[in-house]
User: Fold these one by one.
Assistant:
Number 1:
Amino acid sequence: MPTGRVRRTAKVGSLVGGQAARAYATKAANLTRSEQGRREAAERRQVEAAEQIVEVLGSMKGAAMKVGQVASFIDAGALPPEASKRIQQKLAELRDSAPRVSFKDMRRVIEQDLGEKLRDVFAEFEEDAVAAASIGQVYRARLHDGREVAVKVQYPGIGSAVRADLQNLGLLLRAGKRIAPGMDVKAMSTEVRERLTEELDYEHEAQSQRAFARAWKSHPFVYIPDVVTDLCAEHVLVTEWAEGIGFEEVKTLPRPERDRFGEIVFRFFFESLYRIGHFSGDPHPGNFRLMSDGRVAFLDFGMTRKVDRGWVEHERAIFRLAFDGDAEGLYRELTGMGFYAADDPEVTPERVLAHFEAATAWYGEDGETTLDAEVVRATMIDLGDPRSEHWPLMRRATLPPERMLATRMEALTLGVLGQLEARANWGAIAREWLYGEPPATELGREEEGFFDRLASSGRSDSTRPAEPIA
């Protein structure tokens, strides 16, 4: 894993240059192709670019891997199903395969950060990593008091690699934009810088995970492992072990079990935002475990954001305007927030509403929907792809930085549900927190008492529907 700026710049620069050359070659060849031929060539080129970019950026770890993950998870669903499947498989391989970092080096990080020998801290420690991510990898261990724990350790030198990547962020985002043409580079840059800086500090992540564990404590089907606070430092994070099956195994379960798992994932990420105001922006499949008692354990809280109650209320009200078909109200609010220029004659209330409805149809409409590859593909295209009929409008939009992580969370959640081919009335479930309606499913009824208690404690306004915008 290269950590110096020169080597990392050279690797990304070579990738971007090669992609540009291939794009020019495709444009030249298109001069002699039919319209259908040009479309097919463009699609083949995008598939090839996506696979190469995911491979190169994923192998680099650091911010490079993060940009590759974000772009590909957002846009892979817009590619043909077979191509999307190959890219998701490549991401899974990169996510689950530990890099070539010797345990000796990783052990040194643990002992230096904790100030003790490994044997003095842990009764048992498995030297083979069980998972790997963009800036660290996870080991399984047992404390002297008998508790099974997960030990997350940063790669040696990853801080230097991330700082080099942040200096090269413009180049990285050019690579990412080859996968996701509709990606808002400015908003993405802001979020990557802010979130990765936080991710490098595992003490910050420990604080976030403790907050999530408190907020979701005693929930009937969501479980957040507790943090072992006295064993956490800047580069080491120790949490209680969550035993369960991973996402790839969940995908093989019968449909009712996949549907239940999918609804729990949907509820956790969306309710974290709309009911609690503290959400994770990282709904990657490697961060879930289905436990034997039916609960789902959620892991990795390095990329989170807190939003205040006023922001949540405003978001709810905007969705209500859209779902109620109020084009003028929606246009007024989005131009007021800076999504669109109020004096742009090409941006009309009707066009704004049509795009909003297309991008949110999977949970904005009443009725059961199976989130298969075609639904995900159509939605991802309408979220930011030149092939969308709404692309002329999207090009005129500016996504505010504070909305970037929430949009990413929603897109990645859809991508996860699409891999499960989960089925539910997503619109009826969403109306629980957007309109304050009664529970729409058995899971909703199971958690109703939990959110009632949360609201009565003053930590949530979940039972109260959003106030209309004046």
Note: The chain has three domains: 5-97+159-183, 100-154+201-241, 244-470.
Number 2:
Amino acid sequence: MSAFIRRYLALTMKEVQQLRRNRGLLVQLMIPPTIVLVIFGYALNPKVRGLRLGVVDESQTYESRDFIDSLTENVNFTIANLYTSPEDALKNLDLDLFLVIPTDFARSLNRGETADVQVVIDAVDANTAQIAQGYLGKVLGDYNSSADFVPAAYYSPRRTLNRAAHPAPPPGAVEVRSAYIYNPGLITTWYYVTGIMSIIMFINASLVASALAVKEKETGTIEQLMMTPAQTVEMLLAKTSPVFVVMMAVIFLALITGVVVFGLPVRGALWMFTLAAAFSALAGIGIGVLVATVSKSQQQAQLLTFFVNPPITLLSGATSPIDNMPDFFQKLSYLDPLRYLVTIVRGVTLKDAPWSALWPNLVTLAGVAILLFSISAWRFRKQ
């Protein structure tokens, strides 16, 4: 065992010295991921602001103008223009949605009847269309509840909206009140930052491991290593240990950036976060070494990782919920080690999840990581 340790330490020192001489790589591993995390944290925001709203006011009454004023009070809508007919509004392709207020709008309200308002939404971006539907429903609900008459108005949209009434709740009606847990301030950046930091660490681990392993082939030093008394396992461990340490530094740097820049909380056990990051780094290194065993150059290895990493990222649930995926891909995501890291990171930072809730993810992540690293070691030794 002492001979094993001596050879391992000697080979590790060789890899460390190579990394020290390659300072550009170390800078690339630290600074760009931090910048990417900040950019994505601000850019990936599902909130929609400044929806361009057109209005076709066929009523031209005090009631219709009051209704339009209630829409402008909402910061989510910007009145782009007033039109004389729906055909004119349809010609403006820059509108996100427009309203058609009928001629009998005021007369229906004064009679205590329900007034119809037609809504047309641009549904090219389905997500924005659904968000606009929710915003408009809230505005109409506030308008009805503040009106002096009941019922007030409802909207009968065409395309993406459903016909729905929003009168003030009658006596004895059920009133639903929502309470938000884990993120009561509804800070959307927390969701994306926790996912992006996991992606950055995992992808970097696979890219760096594959590049360093293939470099031995390109420079021809792999044959010299084979002539030494060192065994294949010792060489592989020595080659991946510095990468492992650097990847752990990367994810903790990302965590500190999330806390400082976005106010990301860390409510759970930090040791659980560290353990999950370690197994995930091991899995990423295993994938990188596995790619290196079938590559003849660093360029080929990078191209292969571009085919491997995007599916792993998309199936992890880091940027979109797994439950929204088709059933086949939901089952396929159980093979994705990044899925378990994302779950643990969010459980530790946002939810203060107990050990009993996270240990199945940690055990599965450890099993997948050991399996990937073992396969890569077998391929490396066979080669």
Note: Residues 148-170 have pLDDT under 50 and may be disordered.
Number 3:
Amino acid sequence: MKPHTKQRIAFSFLFLCTLLVILPVGLILIIIIKNGLPALSWQFLTDIPRAGMREGGIFPAIIGTFYLVLGAIIFALPIGVMCAIYLNEYTKENIFSRLIRLAIINLAGIPSVVYGLFGMALFVMFFKFGTSILSGALTLGIMILPVIITSTQEALRSVPKEFREVSFSLGISKWQTIKRVVLPCAFPGIITGAILGIGRAAGETAPLLFTVAAFYLPRLPRSIFDQVMAIPYHLYVISTQIPNIPEKIRYGTALVLVILVLGINLFAIILRIKLRRKQRW
């Protein structure tokens, strides 16, 4: 067989695999948009649930999701970035550093329901934070830590070593080099990882089920120790626990969640492209 023919067969196979991934996702999006678009309105986005969640909107769930994601990123971003700096800039390649990297990889593969049980045992019961925004945000923060650490490490590795060497040759300390040279150059990758972590946190249900989510709470939280409604858990509730609910409310809630997650990921891509264009290396 000629090399050109082999290449065409390989490209055709790869294209087929791509279609097998894209088509189901596209079909799901079409179904959600078709059935959920009639429910979207200003009232749906800004009203509280009424009549046993069969009427009204999802405003408390939107606000609750925002609080949880904000708390998770405030907790996870500084710790994740500092951990990545330590692993990439200070540790030498040894058994200890390999064990830490292996632990980070394993944390990324743990199911979210396990994080939920861990958060319930540690924050809800041991620290006695109760089912609250604080417990939920800390649990989500731990869950997205591997994403932030990994993306920050890749961003730090992408900075040329020559930048560090030139800085050291000028008599600048290692920390000042990291602070003034390495981190600004790695900033696009760090921000991208943080936003992708936000996208994952916004779409999770299991951790919220054990740590914070309320079945029905038609008011906004007053403190970090209050329960909240969240869009993923609210979607689960109205899809499985509420009989005779209009179909458009279910699909409308799903559409809002999809728009939120896709919007966050799209924002991360656009921001990364713009920041990288500003770099001159």
Note: The chain is about 75% helix and 0% strand.
Number 4:
Amino acid sequence: MMKNVHGSTVDWLGEAIVAGRYAVGVAMPPEPLLCAELGVSRTVVRESIKSLVAKGLVHTGPKVGTHVLPAEQWNWFDPDVIAWQSKIGLGADFLRDLQELRRVVEPAAVKLAAERAVAQDIQEIESAFAGMKQAVEHGGDYVSFDLRFHQGLLRASRNRLLVQMSKALSALLRTSFEISTSRKNGPASSLQMHRDVLDAVIARSPTKAEKAILKLIDGASSDIEKVLGSRKRLPKLSQPPVRLKAA
């Protein structure tokens, strides 16, 4: 679905900031110049700047204009910020930060899921796993089902903050899953590891669930390091997920 004028303007400005076309600490062009350059109204520019403020990319104030903030202050849990960075390119440090974050968050969430998951949670995760298995055996969109699987685990923790984090982590996790999927036999080899996680949750075994998810995360980390070492082009979130071919 095409974005409206406001959404397109936010995207244009956000990508420009992330790409470094506006220097940190230096005033961005004033509203009239941005209006002329983008062909939009002052209202659209003003509202778009507000969106960028909310995402932590810029600071604005009377008589000081709008200034780009350092990347350390950007909201890296915002899917738009991740998408803009992906178009520019995700660096090795960023991907390693992601894997460290997963190692902190997911094992704790899965342990809670093994204690708290209800029938609906299990059904949703089972459905996601079935989609992954279907893609491996007959071709199709593996990554989207992989995302649903991990989002389902976080929701099954029944912790409101972790559930909210599942939405924020989606764009980050997709990057990791795209890389693993690009590895030869990557999805097929990780399928059983996903099954082990789910079986441990069903069995109400927090210890086994934690051990299984750590094995899965460490496998993804290994895939990322191999891709980084090969200097292959990293996936871009602006593109549809790669579809597996039928075996």
Note: The chain has two domains: 5-73, 79-244.
